[in-house]
Amino acid sequence: MIKVDRERCASSGQCALTAPEVFAQDEEDGRVVLLDEHATGPEVRRATTGCPTQAISSD
């Protein structure tokens, strides 16, 4: 399952660019919005490891 820490998010948007079917950005503050907490695959791993503030985790 994917978890996001919106307080830690820096609004870089890398997750939404890497896996747009799983992540989006809030229109108000630009922080991460999780669209599918059960998604898996290489794009999810890239988004998790590519987050500059490590605001995304998965188990």
TrEMBL record:
- Among its keywords, does the record have Electron transport? yes
Tell me the cofactors it needs: [3Fe-4S] cluster
Q: Which Pfam families match?
A: Fer4_13 (PF13370)
Kindly state which keywords UniProt assigns to this record, in alphabetical order: 3Fe-4S, Electron transport, Iron, Iron-sulfur, Metal-binding, Transport
Family annotation (InterPro entries): 3Fe4S_ferredoxin (IPR001080), Fe-S_cluster_ET (IPR051269)
- Which GO molecular function annotations are given, in alphabetical order? 3 iron, 4 sulfur cluster binding; electron transfer activity; iron ion binding
Q: What does this protein do?
A: Ferredoxins are iron-sulfur proteins that transfer electrons in a wide variety of metabolic reactions.
Protein's UniProt name: Ferredoxin
